[in-house]
Design goal:
The chain is mainly alpha-helical. It has five helices and two strands, in the order βαααααβ. Strands 1-2 form a two-stranded antiparallel ribbon. Helix 2 crosses helix 3.
Length: 69
């Protein structure tokens, strides 16, 4: 998939665990895991907004386009 999710990198930079982030933004650990692994087919803007607010980042920090598969 040409869209990469950099959530692990940002969580590490913030010294935060994924279960803590899931709780803070109100999504299940399973859904956050699907997003982290790049298996998600779509991301709601409300989820993206919550991630950016909680992690103090921009959408472009979380998402990256790569032509390599």
């Amino acid at each position: 998939m040409p869209i990469l999710i950099n959530l692990d990198k940002i969580l590490e930079e913030r010294d935060m665990k994924s279960n803590e982030l899931a709780e803070r933004i109100g999504i299940t650990q399973a859904n956050l895991s699907i997003l982290k692994t790049g298996k998600a087919k779509a991301v709601r803007f409300s989820t993206l907004e919550a991630l950016c607010k909680e992690l103090n980042c921009q959408p472009g920090d979380l998402l990256e386009f790569s032509e390599e598969t």
